[in-house]
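Fold this sequence, please.
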Amino acid sequence: MRRSKKSLYNLIFGVGNQLVVLCVGLIVPKFFIMSYGSEINGLQSSIAYIYTYIALLEAGIGTATLQALFGTLGRENKEETNAILSATNIQYKKIAMMYAVCMLIFAFVYPNTITTSINKVTISLMVLLSGVSSLLSFLFCGKFVVLLQADGRSYIVSFIGLVNYLLMNTIKIVFIIKGYSIISIYIGAALVSFAVVIFYYFYRRKYYNWVSYQEKPKMEAIAQSKNVLVHQIANIVCNSTDVLVLTYVARDLKLVSIYNLYIMVFDAVKSIIANIFSSVQFIMGQTYNKDIELYRKYHQIYEVCDFAVSFSLYSTAYVLVLPFMKIYTKGIQDINYIDPYLPLLFVTVKLLTSAREPAALVINYAGHFKKTQNRAVIETIINVIVSIVGVYFCGIYGVLIGTIVALLYRTIDMYLYSSRRFLKRSPWQSIKQWGVYLLGFLIVAHIFSIIKIEPRGYIEFFGIAILVCVGISMFYIVYTFIFNYRIVWPVTKQVVRKLKEKRGV
């Protein structure tokens, strides 16, 4: 299959997957809050965030393997690919054992260290059942999923993830409606994970029968996995420490519930953006390993597209999140979810996160994990210290400010590092580019501070949302052509020419 077709499939399935996740993800938490209360919803969020830390056991191996496979697949070297996969298989088995131990420790310690009225046995069972899916992945299909991603077949991973997600949440909704206990819901959802393992097994036998995990393992290919882990920890801290600080420092699971509803919206947008650009990242990775000059041209285009799409979708989320929250939380009495300052803080976090993605990619492709790990540690320290101090003085605002301060430091650092070492250009090029789009965001925010959006129900909201999304997207398209004409116009002409050739015009 051609790389362009793989990219198209990755885009369609990836974005389609996230749109479904967005819609379903808005429905299920409302069921939980209305049926079990905000405390249970906050507890679920807290457990999920802690598992993101435990999952760091795998993070270094997955990323290191992915970068190694870009090179072997680009050279079509199946023997070396199998050697890397054999090494990865050994590591995943070790990870599965450590993960199982962490699950047991988590299930025992967590109920005894939080302030809640929920039964401790219930909490322990929720913790154990929440970890089943990842444990099965580490044992049976994690290494194959990485191979699919490196080979440009992320659309398969997206499709399986979508089916799994729909089945799990269908079970949750049906069980809630029938009045089943929270543990019954978790058991039903955990059982679905076994079907995923079975599918990957048969898919590998049919389409990748040349794959073997019995070759002599090439451990040196993934030797930087520990260094990758440091970077993954820093990334998780920027995305997850907020909930832990609210749980253990502020000791308020209702604040966690508020945080979770807002981050749910912005993370859904983040996932859509990630799927759009992950559809071409295997091309970027393979190109870096074969032709660095061509990669630099691709990188410039990638950066502009990343900023344009990210600012467009996050601006839309910023404008619509409060009107949506007013409808979504109507009837919830135990805490007020409407806060006019939270959207600005959340969108700032996400815009800074998206700003560093292009720079982070080239650092990953170059394999400079060890050389940049100290910078990642500094980011982690800044985030934790500022968040803990901030939560005492500003509550939920404080943890977000901590994340923003850490992101500012690391984003600028990544611009400096990637520009000087790999892109051979001034870091100001990326900084000015981001500043241009920040100005665009301020224009959009000002316009919609004048235009009041007050839908009375979901149908009216989604109608308005479509108009707002289209309007903001058109603004950023025109904005991009004005400020990046020399970069965007040649690409546009090339795309139009290829479309005409396909149609025989």
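The CA atoms of residues 46 and 244 lie 7 Å apart. DSSP finds 18 helices and no strands in the chain.
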